[in-house]
Amino acid sequence: MPNFAKNRQRQHYCARLPGGRATARVMSSPGVNDMSRAGKIVIAIVIAFIFVVAGAISAGVYWISRHGHEVFEAGEKAMNEGQEFGKKSDQQGCVDEAVSRYKANRGFGGALSASMFVRSCLDESRPTPGFCDNVPKPTDVFRSARWQIEEARKAGIADNFGQQIFSQVQNHCQSRESKSK
Questions:
Q1: Based on C-alpha coordinates, what's the Rg of the chain?
Q2: 51-64 pLDDT tens trace
Q3: At a CB cut-off of 8 Å and minimum separation 6, what does 132 contact?
């Protein structure tokens, strides 16, 4: 009898059914075309995940193609308004205005707009004495996170998106520090 595990061949055999009829059956070698139910489930989940990711990417591309110009225009508007506001204000005034703008339009879009506003405003504004004194460098990750959370809390912002305003303050203070060296 052949060793099925080594040569992976199929074995044909004939069986007699009750009533004398013959039937042919094919018996696979162990391990050939033998996938467990768990393996099939894993493959199905992976394929479903690939379809979901492809669908999400397609939806994102579609949305950007339809609304990307609106997002770009809103960002450009926020930056222009920040520059204009900054010409008449000091650094703290820029932050206060960005916080009030964010509170009027919370969420991801509001944070994006307020962040662009505050960054361009700070670049144009007059210095506020001591404004950057206690601001940690953005590269000091743990101190930065604590500082952003604390500053957002002081400003009455209780969500993660609003903390981005203070990330821009850090970037501004860091760029000022590197320019003065």
A1: 32
A2: 999 999 988 888 77
A3: 172, 173, 176, 177
Contact between residue 125 and residue 89 where contact means Cβ atoms under 8 Å apart: yes
pTM beyond cutoff 0.70 = no
First to last CA, the chain: 86
Q: Is the pLDDT of residue 146 over 80?
A: yes
CA–CA separation, 173 vs 157, rounded Å? Answer: 21
pLDDT at position 6 is 47
* CA count, 13 A, side-chain hemisphere, 117: 25
Cβ atoms 162, 111 nearer than 8 A: yes
pLDDT for the residue 181: 44
Neighbours of 122 (CB within 10 A): 26
| 39 contacts: CB under 8 Å, gap ≥ 6 | none
* Element containing residue 86 per DSSP (H, E): helix 37-87
Q: How many CB atoms lie under 10 A from the CB of residue 137?
A: 13
In this predicted model, what pLDDT tens digit does every residue of 68-100 receive, in sequence order?
677 677 778 888 888 898 899 999 999 999 999
Beta strands in 21-74 (DSSP E): 22-27
